Amino acid sequence: MVKIMASKLRDVELITDTGIRLGWVYDFSFDEETGEILVIVAEPDEDLDTSEFVTDHEGLLLIPVSAVKSIGEVIIIDASKLAARSKLKRLPKPAQSRARSVLSGGLKKKD
Questions:
Q1: Does residue 86 belong to any structural domain of this protein?
Q2: pTM of the predicted model, to two decimals?
Q3: pLDDT class for 37, splitting at 50, 70, 90?
Q4: Is the pLDDT of residue 103 over 70?
Q5: Degrees (nearest 5) of the Cα angle 78, 61, 23?
Q6: CB–CB of 67/14 below 8 Å?
Q7: Do the domain assignments include residue 59?
């Protein structure tokens, strides 16, 4: 397994496997207990309609790490695994409450 420093991923472009430019890596959110990376926090592309995507209170995209297909000069995201608002509404109750606690935690931008 190749190790990549998180600092090297800052500002790397995120593109879906269907060719949609999502934006650029801003930060990562992780589980404090396990250290597992949960989501990529991304600044959305200016042409992206974010209304169908999960975002934080500042409008940053929240992309589940499980949707990452490959990392190189760009990060390729599996569009079928990309969390969309419409998909979150259909989750069973336990998963829905876990998703809220992870995704609506209010990530803060660094000044």
A1: yes
A2: 0.71
A3: confident
A4: no
A5: 70
A6: no
A7: yes
